[in-house]
Amino acid sequence: MSLIFTPLGIRGIVGRGLDAHISMLIANIFGRRLGKGSLAVVGRDTRPSGEAIERAVISGLLSAGVNVLNIGIAPTPTIEWATAKYDANGGIVISGSHNPPEWNALKLLGKEGILLHPDEMELLRSEFEKGRFESVPWNEMGREEQYDAIGDYLEDLLRFVDIERVREYKLKVCLDVNGGAGAYVTPYLLNELGVKTLTINSAPGIFVRELEPRPDTLEDLSKIVVATGSDLGFAHDTDADRLTIVTERGEVMPEDITLALVVDYILERKGGGKLVVNAASSRIFDHIARRRGAEIHRTPVGEAYVTHKMKEIGATVGGEGSCGGVILPDFHLGRDGPLAAALILELIANRGKSLSDIIDDFPKYHTIRKNIPMKKEWKDLEEKLIRIGERRGMRLDFLDGIGLISEDLWALVRLSKTEHKIRVLVEGRDEEEAERLLDEISEALT
Hints:
The chain is α/β, with parallel strands linked by helices. The protein folds into four domains: 3-147, Alpha-D-Glucose-1,6-Bisphosphate, subunit A, domain 3 (Alpha-D-Glucose-1,6-Bisphosphate, Chain A, domain 3); 152-246, Alpha-D-Glucose-1,6-Bisphosphate, subunit A, domain 3 (Alpha-D-Glucose-1,6-Bisphosphate, Chain A, domain 3, 3-Layer(aba) Sandwich), CATH 3.40.120; 255-339 and 351-361, Alpha-D-Glucose-1,6-Bisphosphate, Chain A, domain 3; 366-445, Alpha-D-phosphohexomutase, C-terminal domain (TATA-Binding Protein). Helix content is 38%, strand content 23%. The protein has 15 helices and 20 strands. The strands form four sheets. The chain has a seven-stranded mixed sheet, with helices on both faces. A five-stranded antiparallel sheet has the order 16-20-19-18-17, covered by helices on one side. It is globular, with a radius of gyration of 22 Å. It starts with a strand and ends with a helix. The model has no long low-confidence stretch (mean pLDDT 95).
């Protein structure tokens, strides 16, 4: 598999698309863009390939005359936060996120710890294709400093949480970090909040389940939550920028619910504001925006699109419901799983209700996701999808792929940015109607 450039970063299977040589070249090109004497933060998740890629990335930056603050194994949100907190000129996150263990990726950050804009990624891709590695003279090489930023990150995060209120409520949580970088942060965060915590799958680098925390991969966590009488369960992906929740009944919630809980809570506290979500996020966010008197803005799928829009309009809160990624710009402009966990615990403590009861206050949507192999030209498929929308009297939206929208039913069909697949999302108030639309779309795409 070749190297894949996406708005989220540069990824590939290690040894087949991504390797130390390529990583060093990319870091060198990025370092030259930052400039001699600049500072870059580097951190990684717990994948077996991480250490080799880390050394290559640091070598590439040093050779470009860039100084490196290496914070080692840390969640992606910690690395993003550190880039802004320590006034670095940029950063590199080494993490394949929710991809399988054989994958890894480089996520490139700008000055405020924000993922590079997709336009900037295109410029970097052009430089990479030229294949030029350029080193500064021996006496202008950068220097590396190692620093454990997790304590600073936790201290800063806790400023956004009512610690005493959560402690008083005496919650019990089952946490599944699945061998990822979240093991270095979230258990300690919960301890500071006085939460009785049972952590499972906590050995770093040992991945017991699939890395993406989806409802179909969290059966063990669901059973343990019920068996231990926990108030809820939390699950991270490998770099802990995502958070999936399990209710006290053992129900694994769709990814959108994580973001919905936090967005609703923040907008309630702020008395409205501006909300940014991606095109694949549930229509539950339109309901929340109306209820809280907030503006809602949508972007193409990808954290980079969301964060740059949030910065542009001065958003109050946002994220990607399609992956349970919460972004609170008052803290930093990146998806943050540990922060989401802390805010959900505060929400439960303040409402004095079970997680299930809080979720029951939201309107019910039936969401279906399906991936279909790409076998035909996208232009031909577009025409078929447009005809489906016109036949059903649905509004068409071309923000990212093709959206088919009516009052109680909508669908999004788009090309995957990381795989040769078409991603289909259908959501509706009526489950049978959503299934029928999915069947109609699937037939058109095969």
